[in-house]
Predict the structure.
Amino acid sequence: MPEANLHVYVVWLPVLARMSPEALTGASRSAARRLADPRVRHFVDSEARLGELYAPILRLPEGAVAWDVYFLFRPEGRWEKAPPAPDFWMHQLFVASPEQRLEARRFAAEVEKLLVAVKK
């Protein structure tokens, strides 16, 4: 991560077989050790509320949960009454747009574009 003011937030949701809160917390702690960078913060959402809130914003089918999604936000984005729509996003879902299926190089290019725009 090239920028000191870049922040990465990882939110863990119990989607697969609705993991127990303990298993979810353990998985998040294990990942936090692998991503040992002060700009990376891990959160556990044991009720998958964030995924439920983002599903309609991303225009996912009714009843779907947004998980395995990757969002980019400009620094001025704020959560007011509802979560903000991401400036860019990709996913690894079967129920979302194939045009936004995760491609690492494309996502990295979007991160770079956003970082350049934020510096201006």
